[in-house]
Amino acid sequence: MDYQKSIEKYSVSYQQVYLWVRKYKSNGEEALRDNRGRNKPVEELDEHERLKLRIKELEARNEYLEMENAFVKKSWQRFSEELHANFSSTCRLVSSYPRTS
User: Fold this and answer.
1) Cα separations (Å) of 47 from 2, 38, 55, 59, 61?
2) From the centroid of its chain, how far is CA 10?
3) For residue 74, is pLDDT > 90?
4) What is the pLDDT of residue 70?
5) Helix H or strand E segment including 87
6) Is there a contact between 6 and 13 (Cβ–Cβ < 8 Å)?
7) What secondary structure letter does DSSP report for 42?
8) 17 C-beta neighbours (distance < 10 Å), count
9) What's the average model confidence in pLDDT over 41-52?
10) Distances from the Cα of 81 to the Cα of 57, 69, 75, 86, angstroms
11) What average pLDDT does range 34-39 have in this prediction?
12) What integer best gives the mean pLDDT of the chain?
């Protein structure tokens, strides 16, 4: 519990070490575990949590489909512009040939 050594070793502030020590003293080693990102299995979720999870999944799917749609639109626009440019140049080329009767 040497605060200064902990500050130097972990490159953190005094306040951070103080909070760690306080957590350790009140709830032991388990209190120092980082449980962020720990998810319950779907079976353990209540109905509200399941619905929130489903909404997140649908929002992510929607975002993916919007990006995919934008990509297809942009690709189609480029293709269309290129096709138009090629058609126009072909028409100019054909019209420049002398006509024979």
Assistant:
1) 47, 19, 12, 18, 21
2) 30
3) yes
4) 94
5) helix 47-95
6) no
7) G
8) 19
9) 89
10) 36, 18, 10, 9
11) 74
12) 87
